[in-house]
Amino acid sequence: MRSRDPFASMWAEACELLDRAERLHGHFFELGRPEAGRPTWQAPVDVFESGDELSIVVALPGVTPEALEVLLDGPTLVVTGQRPFPARSPGTHIHRLEIPWGRFVRRIALPGDGLQLAEQSLAHGCLTLVLRKGGTPR
Predict the structure, then answer these.
(1) Which of 40, 72, 88, 96 could form a disulfide with 32 if both were Cys (CB 3.0 to 4.6 A apart)?
(2) In this structure, what CATH number is given to the domain that contains residue 54?
(3) Is the pLDDT at 130 greater than 90, yes or no?
(4) Residue 77 maps to a domain
C-alpha cells in the first residue's frame, strides 16, 4: 500500500527509476561469450521491421568502418570487429572507463530466412544495416 505522504511517494518513485536506470546501464554493453579464447563484448542493437525491410542499428562508438565485419549466416546476422583502447598521453590517469574496448561479437537472430544485406553505413557511432526480404540487394 502506498503512503499518503506525497514526498514519500515521490521518493519511492525516484528510487525505482534510479534502479531501473542502473539495470539498463548494466545491460548497455554486455560481455559476450569468449571467442577463440579471447574476451568479447556485445554492442546494443535496435531492430525495426517494416514492409519488406529489416533495419538494424548497432551502437559502436569509436569503431571505424575498417574495423568491422558483417556476415549474414542463415537466420543470424553476425557483426564483429575491434574498438581500440582510447589513446592517452603519458601520465594520464583514468578516472572512469565505461565504454568497452577490444574485440566485439554481436549475433542477432533474424525473423525468417531469405534476407539479403542491401545497405550498410556507419555514422555518429552507429552502424545501420538494411536487410531486404526475398529480394535482391540494391
Answers:
(1) 40
(2) 2.60.40.790
(3) yes
(4) yes
